Amino acid sequence: MMGYFWGSGSGYGTMFFGGLFMILFWVLAAAGIIFLVKSLSGNGQNDQHSALDVLKSRYAKGEIDKKEFEQKKKDLV
């Protein structure tokens, strides 16, 4: 009986798991395509925002003075 379900490609068990893996494959492929499109279509706004956050952090830690902070902020914006 076990050979019937897990045999050489025939039976209901093989058909069920084959269909399940096919659906899983297509879901993962679609998710990968969506992720790729979103990552490639970024307009760089997040990069500027994170650079400004780093600059603010450096100023808060005292690594740069106010004059340097203002100049670099002006360059970023």
Explained architecture:
- The protein is rod-shaped, with a radius of gyration of 27 Å.
- The chain has four helices and no strands.
- The chain is mainly alpha-helical and 77 residues long.
Key phrases:
mainly alpha, 81% helix, rod-shaped
Short note summarizing the structure:
This protein is 81% helix and 0% strand. The protein is built from 4 helices and no strands. It is rod-shaped, with a radius of gyration of 27 Å.
What are the segments in which pLDDT stays under 50 over at least 5 consecutive residues? none
- Largest sheet properties: none
The structural domain count equals 2
Number of helices: 4
Structural class: mainly alpha
Radius of gyration: 27 Å
Percent helix, as a range, is over 70%
The end-to-end distance, rounded to whole angstroms, is: 71 Å
Number of strands: 0
Detail the topology: elements first, then pairings.
Elements: H1 2-6, H2 12-40, H3 45-61, H4 66-76
Helix pairs in contact: 3-4
